[in-house]
Amino acid sequence: MHSYTISLKSIFSTLRPYILGVFTAALINIAIVALCSFMFSVSKTFSPEAVLGVVIGADVICAFVGGYIAARIKKEKGIVCGAIVGGILFILVLTGGMISGFEEITYRTVLSFVILLIFGALGGIKGVNRKTRIKIK
Asked: What is the pTM of this model?
C-alpha cells in the first residue's frame, strides 16, 4: 500500500489560482457596486431595474476578470478554472444576498448562476490563450 501525505503547502499551491481569482473578483465587485451606489445617490434616481442591471453587470465583469486571473496563474484548463471562479463568486453573492434578506431563489438566481459560469469560463479561456509578452532586450 502507498501512503500519501498531503501538505498544507501543496493544498495552497493547488488552490492559489482560485483564491486569487475570487478575491480579485470580489474586490472589483465591491468597488463597482459602491461606485454605482454613490452615482445613484448623487443623481437621485433609483430604479430597481437599474440597480439589478448594475449588479448583474458587475457580477459578469467580475466573473470574467476572476476567471482570467485564475487561468493566467494556473496556465492550463481555462474553462474549468473560470467556471470554478464563477461558481464560487455566485455562492458568495448569493450568500451575501440571502444574509441581507434581499435574495430569494427564483429563476433569476438560476440564470445568474449560468451567466456567471459562462463568463467565468470565457475569462478562463481568454487567460489561458493570451500570448505572453515578448521581452525586448
From this structure: 0.82
